[in-house]
Amino acid sequence: MTTTEQTLLEAIRGAMHDALAWDARVVVLGEDVAVKGGVFLATDGLLERFGALRVIDMPIAEAGIVGVAIGMALHGLRPVAEIQFADYLYPAIDQILNEAARMRYRSNGDWNCPLVIRAPFGGGIHGALYHSQSVEALFTSTPGLKVVVPATPHDARGLLLAAIADPDPVLFLEHKRLYRTLRGPVATGQGATVPLGVAACRRPGRDVSIITYGAMVHESLRAADALAHEGVDLEVIDLRTLVPLDRDAVLATVRRTGRALIVSEDNLTGGFAGEIAAVIAEHGFADLDAPVRRLAAPDVPAVPFSETLEDAFMVSAAKIMTAARELARY
Amino acid sequence: MTQDTAQPVAAVGDAPRPPDGTDPALLMELYRQMVLIRRFEEKCQEMYTKAKIGGFLHLYIGEEATGVGAVSALREGDHIFTHYRDHGHAIARGLDINALMAELFGKVTGTGKGLGGSMHFADASKQFWGGYALVGCHLLLAVGTALGDTMQRKPGVTMVFFGDGATNGGEFYEALNFAQLWKLPVVFVCENNLYAMGTPLEVHSSVTEIYRKAAAFDMRAERVDGNDVLVMREAALRAVDHARSGQGPVLLEAMTYRFRGHSAQDVQKYRSKEDVERRRSGDPIEVFRRQLLAWGVIAAADLRTLEHTIDDQVEAAVQFAEASDEPGVEWIRQSGVYAAAITVDPPIHGE
Question: What does the pLDDT read at residue A263?
Fold first, then answer.
């Protein structure tokens, strides 16, 4: 096993390349994934290497992309479908929630639906109404589906390989702002998968636990570095997968610090942060020295375009510092 | 290319003899399947009235010739997807009627161990991928299995059933476009029974000859009399051959009619009793029965014996379902939400 420096995007592309090379059942499909190489070039070069039967340009019709992928998955293939932006998952939502997520259950465990749907999500890139949203909460509430959100290049590769190998449908949400801005060491090789359902502690600390995922991991780490100068010691937990959720890791960190700040880029109300808060309230109440606190985006229906407004919308290191400072003092 | 074989739904006349080369055993098998579906569903209605079957019950009664004729054109290894009115296709594909009745009773011996019920019969061993209740959603899944066969260079054909109402939704167009673009081995069978639930065809579709919708994709299409099992079978054989030989998908519009309401609770304000009675006089099973006798393929006594045997089988299915156990409450989780129990290790520190 070797380790190389890669961006998040390179790690994702490498994982798909290697999965196609290692397993003849793997097929990549989506709008513009073949000739163009993907809207973000995540699939660049795969058509040339693997051919048009393994890397398939689909019509821009999301229900069709996902529905066809489900049929292929039922038939024993391992499709990796790309939806260009997570906001575009909505036209395919019946296929994902009503069909893919239920195949195993409706068949009493007889049928596998080993499907991966990759979709770039998240704001901070001036994408506005249809190119910025965090959509995870729509999907975490449907059992049968797994939801993965990598925060590092290493995890992006390892989790994507695990998702492709997983016999159940996986929604794989990639933060588009991190695609090229984030570089890091990536272990390559066939064994270098990261198991679904295991959180990572990115920074041990004594005072407040930050429980987060995706790009907010990095905002939280910046906040932690800054607050260290003030003598506030933050622990940062990267959930890595929302479903299955590593409840033990959530409860263990609360046990260590007694204070929980859940950070999410999604809207506050009904977001996944609420589920984490509920887990802590139900199972970790006795360990708490302060109320559970959520820090999330305001309850507006979309990420606004104007830089000023988008900055106001986005959770940032500065906002995390303020919230964590208050919680540490409670 | 579309091929205009449009005819109004005609009562099937008593032809003087069966089509050339038709094996009498095949004719009997088609008749057996149609009667089995009819008797099975009449029993379903009876059990529903007795509250042995709950939920929603959508009967295929009147449409048997379409499903039996179409499915008879398939081979082992071919795939079927269908809609929520799925009893007929399941029986035609040879699913065990004991397991089907048990599923309707919500018993653990059912095809889905009681999780699915009427609208979701399925059997992976027969590549019968089940009934789907959102009209049109499963057309895309069917395109997926066909793409899977193409990718793996397997000779399978996927047949997918849907109603006239489903052809107004976007997924119909997504599926036809991609299937034709890739010349995928799919046979799309639109069962045009003239109503999308309670909305008449001319109220819900700008084009009432559904097969013409395929013209938008340069796809081969035919409108056929779905109430004549032999006509349906011949059309399906042509379509399946076309698809299997790599020439691309086909849209078959089978003209048929449902004798019962949309579901067991339907009071049918959208059509008159006289209309339904007039249609019943051309009952596809009765017409086919008269043909078989007129052709001298089988003696009346043998037909009666067959019908009695079917009645016994359906009664036995009810007894099987009655005697079967309810699923234990543990099934609510054990039935497979995910492939295996999720094991969660301690968090990885300081990676």
Answer: 98
Write down all domains in chain A, each with its CATH number in brackets: 2-188 (3.40.50.970), 200-328 (3.40.50.920)
Specify if B5 maps to a domain: no
pLDDT value at position B334?
67
What is the pLDDT averaged over residues A44-51? 98
For the beta sheet containing A55-57, the strands, ordered from the edge strand earlier in sequence to the opposite edge, are: A55-57, A26-30, A78-82, A116-121, A170-175, A146-148, A241-243
Q: Does B190 lie at the interface with A, CB-CB under 8 angstroms? A: no
Whole-number Å distance between alpha carbons of A222 and A217: 9
Q: What is the pLDDT of residue B115?
A: 86
B181 CB neighbours in chain A (<8 A) are 59
Q: Would you say residue B4 has pLDDT above 60?
A: no
Query: What is the rounded distance in angstroms from the CA atom of residue A125 to the CA atom of residue A145?
Result: 28
> What is the distance between the alpha carbons of residues A247 and B24, in angstroms, rounded to a whole number?
65
- The answer to whether the CB atoms of A64 and B175 lie below 8 A apart is yes
- What is the arithmetic mean of pLDDT over A211-236? 98
At A77, is the secondary structure helix, strand, or coil?
coil
Instruction: Report the amino acid identity of residue A160.
Output: L
- pLDDT at residue number A251: 98
Q: Which of residues 84-113 of B touch A (CB under 8 A)?
A: 112-113
Residue B349 included in any domain: no
Q: Which of A171, A175, A180 is nearest to A121 (CA)?
A: A175
Which residue type, as a one-letter code, is found at position B282?
G
B50-79 residues touching A, CB cutoff 8 A:
79
Q: Which residue in chain B is spatially nearest to A60 when comparing CA positions?
A: B174
What ipTM was assigned to the predicted interfaces of this complex? 0.90
Supply the CATH number for residue B145's domain. 3.40.50.970
Cβ-based contacts of A246 with chain B (< 8 Å): 344, 347
Contact with chain A for residue B333, Cβ under 8 A: no
- Give pLDDT tens digits for B213-233: 999 999 999 999 999 999 999
Residue B343 lies in a domain: no
pLDDT of residue B328: 86
Residues forming a β-bridge with B18: none
Number of folded domains in chain B? 1
Sorted by sequence, the CB contacts under 8 Å of residue A319 that are 6+ apart come out as: A295
Query: Is residue A167 reached through a cis peptide bond, with omega within 30 degrees of 0 on the bond before it?
Result: no
Q: Is residue B50 part of a domain?
A: yes
Measured CA to CA, the distance from residue B172 to residue B137 in angstroms comes to: 8
Give the residue numbers spanning the domain of B17. 12-334
Work out the pLDDT band at B15, boundaries 50, 70, 90.
low
The set of catalytic residues of A is: 131
Q: What is the mean pLDDT of chain B?
A: 90
